[in-house]
Amino acid sequence: TQLHEFIKSLPKAELHLHIEGSLEPEQMFEMARRNGIALPYSTVDDIRTAYAFGNLQEFLDLYYAGMSVLQTRQDFYDLTYAYLQRIHADNCRHVEIFFDAQAHTERGIAFADVIEGILNALEQGEADFGITSHLILSFLRHLSEEDAFKTLEQAEPYYDRLLGVGLDSSEMGHPPSKFERVFAKSNALGLKLFAHAGEEGPPIYVYEALDILKVDRIDHGNRSLEDDALVNRLVSEGMTLTVCPLSNLKLCVVDDLKNHPLKTMLDLGLAVTVNSDDPSYFGGYINDNYIRIADALDLSKDDIVKLVKNGFDGAYMSDARKCEVM
Ligand code: HPA
Ligand code: ZN
């Protein structure tokens, strides 16, 4: 349709993307083959069939298992470069990506191999596709604060090449307050602060992310809608929420895209953006997310423009770069 073409034509920014969640089944087989790793699947279709999740944890179990094929610096490079090549086709011009360092270092992979593979691909992607990018070190919240501190220390040689730190993995039972000190330390180092909150967790987790972690963006934030005072605050602060429609559908945060709160959030004046989260696992990259949610909620051209603009406003880009792409 005309709206689909409009969406495809617009330059976009993506602010919520886990690079390990862009690992496509074909790539998983290729890396398993070259690294001599046995997979519990015999075909690409087997993998896609296995991607049926009842909640966040069911997804995370397969997500962490899948990334075990990532072994070498070249694997991290190839993973990242393939993602950039893919979103170039979606006219995505700027990305801020998370990586889950602890999910690799706990398997014995060197931190340097992980981050240098990713950073080298980001650099090459800018040269080849003109996509600007930032990298965010995301702490796994099911692990201890001490483990997060250790990971922050490992990142020391790269502080000037990191935009900030994030917080992801199993939300329930792991409130933002668990990471108060490591976020304070990250802030003192000049890093930006991001946290997943209100995906499965209650509104109080969003308050904690704001008040205790002092985050610069909220990832997901859907459940903020259960608390009017919280909504008012997020609106008045202009806090960016990085919403991920197909992720919400696949993880049963919503039962149907027609019941997704994105349009309500927009109408309330929340600074919502559209993102893909883990595109390989959730069945779509950034344009698919825009198109599927636009169709389900009957979004207008103005809605789409607002969402795209929110993406650039919530991004860490120079004004000159914004002018160039928008
Ligand atoms: N939520 C929490 N942890 C994650 C996600 C998510 O959507 N994707 C990858 N790790
Ligand atoms: Zn996420």
From TrEMBL:
<feature type="binding site">
    <location>
        <position position="18"/>
    </location>
    <ligand>
        <name>Zn(2+)</name>
    </ligand>
</feature>
<keyword id="KW-0378">Hydrolase</keyword>
<dbReference type="GO" id="GO:0006146">
    <property type="term" value="P:adenine catabolic process"/>
</dbReference>
<feature type="binding site">
    <location>
        <position position="16"/>
    </location>
    <ligand>
        <name>Zn(2+)</name>
    </ligand>
</feature>
<comment type="function">
    <text>Catalyzes the hydrolytic deamination of adenine to hypoxanthine. Plays an important role in the purine salvage pathway and in nitrogen catabolism.</text>
</comment>
<feature type="binding site">
    <location>
        <position position="196"/>
    </location>
    <ligand>
        <name>Zn(2+)</name>
    </ligand>
</feature>
<dbReference type="InterPro" id="IPR001365">
    <property type="entry name" value="A_deaminase_dom"/>
</dbReference>
<dbReference type="GO" id="GO:0009117">
    <property type="term" value="P:nucleotide metabolic process"/>
</dbReference>
<keyword id="KW-0862">Zinc</keyword>
<dbReference type="InterPro" id="IPR028892">
    <property type="entry name" value="ADE"/>
</dbReference>
<dbReference type="GO" id="GO:0043103">
    <property type="term" value="P:hypoxanthine salvage"/>
</dbReference>
<dbReference type="GO" id="GO:0000034">
    <property type="term" value="F:adenine deaminase activity"/>
</dbReference>
<keyword id="KW-0546">Nucleotide metabolism</keyword>
<dbReference type="InterPro" id="IPR032466">
    <property type="entry name" value="Metal_Hydrolase"/>
</dbReference>
<protein>
    <recommendedName>
        <fullName>Adenine deaminase</fullName>
        <ecNumber>3.5.4.2</ecNumber>
    </recommendedName>
</protein>
<keyword id="KW-0479">Metal-binding</keyword>
<dbReference type="Pfam" id="PF00962">
    <property type="entry name" value="A_deaminase"/>
</dbReference>
<dbReference type="GO" id="GO:0005829">
    <property type="term" value="C:cytosol"/>
</dbReference>
<feature type="active site" description="Proton donor">
    <location>
        <position position="199"/>
    </location>
</feature>
<feature type="binding site">
    <location>
        <position position="278"/>
    </location>
    <ligand>
        <name>substrate</name>
    </ligand>
</feature>
<feature type="domain" description="Adenosine deaminase">
    <location>
        <begin position="11"/>
        <end position="326"/>
    </location>
</feature>
<feature type="binding site">
    <location>
        <position position="277"/>
    </location>
    <ligand>
        <name>Zn(2+)</name>
    </ligand>
</feature>
<dbReference type="InterPro" id="IPR006330">
    <property type="entry name" value="Ado/ade_deaminase"/>
</dbReference>
<feature type="site" description="Important for catalytic activity">
    <location>
        <position position="220"/>
    </location>
</feature>
<comment type="similarity">
    <text>Belongs to the metallo-dependent hydrolases superfamily. Adenosine and AMP deaminases family. Adenine deaminase type 2 subfamily.</text>
</comment>
<dbReference type="GO" id="GO:0008270">
    <property type="term" value="F:zinc ion binding"/>
</dbReference>
